[in-house]
Amino acid sequence: MKEVLKQIDDVVKNNAVVLFMKGTPDFPQCGFSQRVAAILADSCPSYTAINVLLDDHVREGIKKYADWPTIPQLYINGAFVGGCDIIIELHENGELTNLLQQQPAD
User: Fold this and answer.
1) SS3 for 72?
2) What H or E segment, with its residue span, contains residue 18?
3) Confidence class of residue 45 from pLDDT cuts 50, 70 and 90?
4) This prediction's pTM
5) CA–CA separation, 62 vs 52, rounded Å?
6) d(Cα 97, Cα 106) in Å, to the nearest integer?
């Protein structure tokens, strides 16, 4: 598990926006992932998407990484933002756009 958590940490810290999801942005495999991918398509045209269905270790590891039990999970500038309900709320109140526009801390 340590190796998987290290891989996840590397992806999160080396990409400005990362979405761990079921499926891909073009072919989401659950409604929650579909909703978040659609929001990001409008708000953030370029981001890294990780399909957790391709690797059970990553699928379980991401839940431990953020201590968050559900997928999808969104990370911006190395920080966990939340799952589907939180992303929807942030999108609706405009905060997601602000988060996406912030520059990563050095």
Assistant:
1) coil
2) strand 17-21
3) confident
4) 0.94
5) 9
6) 21
